[in-house]
Known about the structure:
15 helices; alpha/beta; 6-stranded mixed β-sheet; 17 strands
Amino acid sequence: MIAEILATGNEVLSGTIADTNAAHIAQILEAAGIEVRRHTCVGDDLDHIAAAVTEICARADVLLVTGGLGPTGDDLTTAAVARAAKKKLVLDPDAEHSMKTYFVQRKRSMQPSDAKQAMLPEGAQCIVNDIGTAPGFMLAMGHCHVFVMPGVPHEMKQMLETGVMPRIETLQGGGRLYAASRTLTVFGLPESTVGERMAGFGAALPGMRYGIRVRFPEIFIKVSTRQPDSRTAQDLAGQACQWVKKQVGESVFSDAGLALEAEVGRLLVSAKATVAVAESCTGGLIADLLTGVPGSSDYFLFSGVTYANQAKVDVLGVSPQTIETHGAVSEETVKEMADGVRRVAGATFGLATSGIAGPSGGTKEKPVGTVCIGLAGPDGVQTSHVCLSFQNRSMNKRLFAFLALETLRRKLL
């Protein structure tokens, strides 16, 4: 079954309002084994909406439309669908009843302008809106079934779940396909390299698809399939997951789609370990990432942004002589920072960073992009020194934070 999504409204078209509805609908359809081919958006124009509906119905089995069902003059979707289907608008008893019930339950008066929402294309099947005034509807146009829903996200989600998807599942009948997918997360490789290593995917795994998404500095690889039975779909997704791990290598750190901070948290919980962080160049970003994970209070104990040298001395016990001799950005300094924060917090691990995020502050010996990472644990302190610059302060800070988290992750393996 092929589906398309049509969003209507000037505010959506102009970007004033983000179309979160399309993303939600696509995810629900994907889980039901339905292939979403296109997302389309048109403004509040009767002719444009009608033309889009006609065009989409010629190539899709199912069309899901959002927006334009309200009582105002710019709510044109119902009339546009009627025009595309060459149907007249008629008062639908079910739509009228659901609207009257809605107003009575809320002790409100139904205005004349509201009655417009009970006018549906002739032959349409009303889909009751349990939490709003505007009913939705389903209308067959040739081989395509059109489902029209409100644009208000919570109303759309409710209608999609209770009124639209059950009808679509009935339309699928015995021809339903079952979807399965897995998401793998990668750190430490550029997108181009990941793409090269995925080159043989289609030949090795017929019937599987993959997509690559970047959220710097992580890369997410989603493998997916649709099959006549759920067991086959799940088995193929598992095989694809193993293929990706083999081809991409140890840079794949999660096959559950976890971000690096979440994977580190999972490993800390598994090891019954705790962590404390001392940050200089990352400015609290590591702590923010770790505490953004639900349940992080089980393993995250303390964070100190010891940006100034004196703070490193006063809070963490770093020797002034170490800083004077080697500099704040040095493996010697982060060694003492990591050891100090571990001691102060009483944590299993102490993680520390010091570096030069830029755009200024670099030298020939320590250019912008230089970061030193220290990790103190029960078996001592390890340090590392890396120089990787994106000539962008925010990107450098984020990369530094992920390099530190990756150091901890590998220690926990």
